[in-house]
């Protein structure tokens, strides 16, 4: 049985699409068709933005509601998401190949974020009165930024949607979300949840479509702010469109982070196996913050290579919906050939292939699989050390001392995540502080809703999560009183 939808969620109302075009979704594991949805066209985006505009501009509307009323809707959205959680995990896993056990971890962020921002908006004063220097008082008022265009990728689709939806709703914005064509079934389940939670008319729309539709939405005259998560190439083009419109934009882009193993790190897989796996290989390598450049002290180089060889060759590769799978297929045929191209590049640049290599994993003759691959013997100048691969491919690079480890970590166009592994907390902290990156974990990695997440250099502009994430959806206005 396939999951087929006939209507689009436009302004909170299930609506007939403007054309007969459809997006057909295949299972990443079996390549079988598992569902289809209408593809939104420009007329549908126009309708979604018009509905969002009305909801935002309407006197007494959503944007002017007391924070408590909006917080109640967010709390209800958390409950409605949880009601559908298992269906959402299954849809994500079937579509993009995320192992189901990992979907149950990575895609549980949305209700956490809905509740986190509900609490934050309850506590945050709408205005602050300051004693002025030239004026009697300056009242600084926060207000929602307006109609938000949110563009999300397919790799962790629900959590990445919620990182925009939760603060946007909390702030009082209305929002039009464009999911990736690879992951649309879960987006419709989120729309069901929003409808059941009573998100008011006009406030939330879902317009599934490709890059062209995304570009149309980004440049739409009715949009006030753009929030984009995706590749650095896509982000650059979104940034150019926003630059000419002088439209505020948040960009969460690609990464090529370093996992720095210090010479005192505990590498016993019984202690650190799960954390090391999560920080370097989660979701089949399809997570932006993974530490895919493993930096190893030369005196423990062979031991580090052996540790990762064990980790990778011991991970069950298979159908994403199989409970025992740790590494599933990639999200699409395109991704499979892109990642295979990088495996070729590593081999042709002279890497030692410690695990994996070209070809399909044994016994898996369908699905967009690659073999999890571990490269050794390359420097930081190799293509596989410089470019984001977005697959289960790691490269171990040797270094002499902590200063060189930091230098190699920073020798990258990107700066999104990273980890430091050490049994000395102070030493780990000082290395972590020296890495040029937006976020870094010590002996593990997990973004936390309380603290800003985002990249430096080519990894992006702006922050999500924490109060900083809410600020991205708010304007501040100063009222001078004499
Ligand atoms: P992508 O850039 O191809 O597409 C992402 C989304 O943007 C899709 O919805 C796509 O249709 C849309 N899009 C692409 N080009 C566009 C344009 N010019 N105008 C408007 N919309 C456009 O990225 P992808 O391959 O789907 O996702 C993987 C990438 O996302 C990786 O580079 C990964 O690192 C990055 N990512 C970053 C973060 C982060 O928080 N920094 C999180 C997840 C993924």
UniProtKB/TrEMBL annotation:
InterPro entries: Ald_DH/histidinol_DH (IPR016161), Ald_DH_C (IPR016163), Ald_DH_CS_GLU (IPR029510), Ald_DH_N (IPR016162), Aldehyde_DH_dom (IPR015590). Keywords: Oxidoreductase. The keyword Oxidoreductase applies. Residues 14-479 form the Aldehyde dehydrogenase domain. GO terms for molecular function: oxidoreductase activity, acting on the aldehyde or oxo group of donors, NAD or NADP as acceptor. Transmembrane segments: none annotated. It comes from the Bacteria. The active site is at 252. CDD domains: ALDH_AldA-Rv0768. Belongs to the aldehyde dehydrogenase family. This is Aldehyde dehydrogenase.
């Amino acid at each position: 049985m396939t999951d087929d939808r006939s209507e689009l969620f436009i302004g909170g109302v299930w609506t007939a699409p403007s054309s007969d075009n459809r997006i057909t979704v295949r299972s990443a594991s079996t390549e079988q068709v598992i569902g289809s949805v209408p593809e939104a066209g420009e007329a549908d985006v126009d309708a979604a933005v018009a509905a969002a505009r009305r909801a935002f501009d309407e006197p007494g509307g959503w944007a002017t509601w007391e924070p408590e009323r909006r917080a109640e809707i967010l709390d209800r959205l958390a409950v409605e998401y949880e009601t559908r959680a298992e269906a959402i995990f299954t849809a994500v896993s079937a579509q993009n190949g995320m192992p189901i056990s990992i979907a149950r971890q990575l895609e549980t962020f949305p209700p956490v974020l809905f509740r986190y921002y509900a609490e934050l908006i309850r506590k945050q004063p709408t205005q602050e009165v300051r004693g002025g220097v030239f004026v009697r008082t300056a009242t600084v008022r926060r207000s929602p930024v307006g109609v938000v265009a949110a563009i999300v990728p397919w790799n962790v689709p629900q959590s990445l949607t919620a990182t925009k939806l939760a603060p946007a709703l909390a702030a009082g914005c209305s929002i039009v979300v464009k999911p990736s064509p690879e992951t649309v079934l879960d987006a419709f389940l989120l729309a069901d949840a929003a409808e059941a939670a009573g998100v008011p008319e006009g406030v939330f729309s879902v317009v599934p479509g490709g890059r062209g539709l995304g570009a149309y939405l980004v440049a739409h005259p009715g949009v006030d702010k753009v929030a984009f998560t995706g590749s650095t190439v896509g982000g650059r083009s979104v940034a150019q469109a926003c630059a000419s419109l002088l439209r505020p934009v948040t960009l969460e882009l690609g990464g090529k982070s370093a996992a720095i193993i210090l010479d005192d790190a505990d590498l016993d897989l019984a202690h650190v196996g799960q954390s090391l796996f999560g920080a370097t290989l989660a979701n089949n390598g399809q997570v932006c913050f993974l530490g895919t450049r493993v930096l190893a002290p030369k005196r423990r180089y062979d031991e580090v290579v052996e540790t990762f060889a064990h980790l990778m060759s011991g991970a069950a590769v298979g159908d994403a919906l199989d409970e025992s799978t740790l590494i599933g297929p990639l999200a699409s045929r395109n991704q499979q050939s892109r990642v295979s191209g990088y495996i070729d590049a590593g081999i042709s640049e002279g890497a030692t292939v410690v695990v994996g290599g070209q070809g399909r994993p044994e016994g898996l003759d369908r699905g967009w699989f690659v073999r999890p691959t571990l490269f050794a013997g390359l420097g930081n100048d190799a293509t596989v050390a410089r470019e984001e691969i977005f697959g289960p491919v790691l490269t171990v690079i040797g270094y002499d001392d902590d200063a060189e480890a930091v230098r190699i970590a920073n020798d990258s166009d990107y700066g999104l995540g990273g980890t430091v592994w050490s049994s000395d907390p102070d030493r780990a902290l000082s290395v972590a502080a020296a890495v040029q990156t937006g976020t870094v974990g010590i002996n593990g990695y997990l973004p936390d809703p309380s603290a800003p997440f985002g990249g430096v250099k080519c990894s992006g502009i702006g922050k999500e999560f924490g109060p900083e994430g809410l600020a991205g959806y708010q304007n501040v206005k100063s009222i001078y009183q004499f």
